[in-house]
Amino acid sequence: xxxxxxxxxxxxxxxxxxxxxxxxxxxxxxxxxxxxxxxxxxxxxxxxxxxxxxxxxxxxxxxxxxxxxxxxxxxxxxxxxxxxxxxxxxxxxxxxxxxxxxxxxxxxxxxxx
Length: 113
Prior knowledge:
Blueprint: E1 4-6, H1 11-26, E2 31-38, E3 41-47, H2 56-67, H3 72-75, E4 78-84, H4 86-89, H5 93-99
Parallel strand pairs: 1-2, 3-4
Antiparallel strand pairs: 2-3
């Protein structure tokens, strides 16, 4: 499997996908999806059966070991990192937001289009 980039791609998404490809190489059952939610916001979801043995913070550390190698301008755009097992995905509110995102808000609190 490869990293799925939803919607249009850009240099930041490509850089993130490249780093997550390293994780994918050692976790072939992982399903990795990324997309740009707004100008300064990137969302990442990794569904991996091997997460079952890990706490949420261990999962986070494992993935950030790869993402920390990115340029700070790129990594600072990551605002959602959803790390779930396939079973957890079924009841995850975070996954619902990932799949059906709320409209981004502008600086004045109104939805942007």
